[in-house]
Structures are given as C-alpha cells and as structure tokens.
Design goal:
This protein is α+β, with helices and mostly antiparallel strands. Helix content is 42%, strand content 23%. The strands form three sheets. Strands 2-3-1-4 form a four-stranded antiparallel beta sheet, with helices on both faces. A four-stranded antiparallel beta sheet has the order 7-8-6-9, with helices on one face. Strands 5-10 form a two-stranded antiparallel sheet. The protein is elongated, with a radius of gyration of 25 Å.
Length: 267
C-alpha cells in the first residue's frame, strides 16, 4: 500500500481522488489516526523493481506529482502529516502497525501543524546585470593589450567584475533581510538549499529558498509582507508559492522494518 500522509481519524479524501498509478485514494484507520493510502501494483514496488524505478526520471516525476497532488488536495480540508515519497507498506496491517506504534509522535506532530500551512519564498538575483566591458571595434583583448586601449579594456573588465561582486553582495544582503522579516512573522521557518538554475530552468541565481509555517488565518498578511519586501528590494526578484501542506515541517519517525516498508519518513 502506497502511503501519502497521516491524519487524524475522520479524515476523508474527496470522492474520485486518484493517486500514484491512478489508484483510488482511501484511508486506513487505527485508533485516533488515519493514513491516506492507495493500493498499487506490488510488482512495481517490490525492492528490486522499486530500485530500478528510482533511476527513472520520468517515473519519479510522475510519482512525485501524483503524491503531492493527493497530499495538497486533502490538506485543503484536513491537517495532514506528509510522508516521504515512495512510502510503501505490504498491506493494511502494516499501515495499522505503524500508526499504533508511533501514535504518540504522529499525534504530537499533528497538533503542532494543525491550522497551519506552508508557504515557499524564493529570492532570485540577476548577477549578470552589470554591463560587460566593451572591446574596441576590430580588436581583440590580446591585440589591444599592448597599448593604452588595452589598459582601458583591463580597467573596464576590473570595474565589471567589481560591479558583479557588489551586485552579488547586495542580493545576498536583501535575501538575509527578507528571511529575517519572514521568520519573525512565521511560527517556524526552514531554509532549503538554493536551486540550481540549470535544473530548475528558472532565470537568476537563487539566493533564498525558504519555507515558512503560517496559521491559515494569517495567510493574507503573510502574502502582503512578501509583496512589501518585493516592492522595496530592488535588484532581486521575490516569488511566493503556496499554500502547501507542511512538507518542510513534518518530521514523523521512521517506521520499523518489521512493518514491511520499502521506505518511510517525512518529506
């Protein structure tokens, strides 16, 4: 059974909600807790097959989209504790065993997250903004280096490098200031590793990749604060995403191997 998240008993997914492998989403209940699960083909999630799938980018992306769609859909109505991608149990008995064994920790985590959602804030800097040093027409840097125009070129190149470094420092300072302001507003925050533009496809250097846990009723005020920071932070681009289920703040313990897991944990 593919397990997406843990919630309190009484949590119900919307009718017709499909998850990984286009399998319907249901709940397995044990005491005060419920797990959101789908019955997926065992052949795709046995240890050897799963190891092969984890090397397939297309399979991973498809599974991650389905996983997140289920969690975010249910989180719109219920407090959920998201689990790590590809958390699998052999059967409903294994799911119930984990819920029973870790009930205290799961319930404590749910209490800390109840009524709260995660917002993502990214700050991007354009470190290429400084004008590049010009080379006299018809000349190369090698050719102009023997006379005065060569010295001018080297001075321009140095000035360009210094301007880039200044832009980078300013962007880093703006990112730190933004995080400090957002951290004071949010109940909790977490800084993630900056994204690589070559992988994300987003232009600009990512200087802040933060997650912020905010009460639902303060969502508008938090978004307003992000907007204010964006307006007064010249030279960087600030982007707000969410609200999401609290992926960055869910920390349930790992389930024991005896439960028959292929993997388990928190996102």
């Amino acid at each position: 059974m593919y397990t997406y998240a843990v919630a309190r008993a009484g949590c119900r997914p919307p009718d017709g909600l499909l998850g990984v492998a286009d399998a319907p989403v249901e709940t397995v209940t044990e005491g005060a807790l419920a797990a959101l699960v789908s019955r997926v083909p065992a052949a795709d999630f046995e240890e050897e097959a799963l190891r092969a799938h984890l090397e397939e980018m297309a399979w991973l992306e498809r599974t991650a989209r389905a996983h997140r769609s289920v969690v975010d859909t249910v989180a719109a109505e219920f407090c959920v504790l998201p689990l790590r991608l590809v958390t699998v149990h052999r059967d409903a008995r294994g799911v119930r065993q984990v819920l029973a064994q870790r009930a205290e920790e799961f319930l404590s985590a749910l209490v800390s997250l109840d009524g709260r959602m995660e917002w993502g804030v990214k700050v991007y800097a354009d470190d290429t903004g400084a004008a590049k040093p010009a080379v006299p027409a018809g000349d190369s840097p090698r050719e102009v280096s023997a006379d005065g125009s060569g010295r001018d070129f080297l001075r321009r190149r140095l000035a360009h490098r210094q301007a880039q470094e200044q832009n980078q420092r300013r962007a880093d300072e703006l990112a730190r200031a933004a995080h400090e302001a957002l951290d004071k507003f949010a109940e909790r925050s977490r800084l993630h590793r900056p994204q690589d533009a070559r992988l994300s496809g987003v232009s600009g250097r990512n200087v802040l990749n933060g997650a912020y846990l905010v009460p639902r009723e303060q969502a508008g005020a938090f978004a307003g604060l992000v907007g204010e920071l964006a307006d007064r932070s010249q030279g960087v681009r600030i982007e707000l995403t969410g609200p999401w289920a609290p992926y960055s703040f869910a920390q349930p313990p790992q389930a024991p191997d005896a439960a028959g897991n292929a993997g388990t944990g928190a996102v």
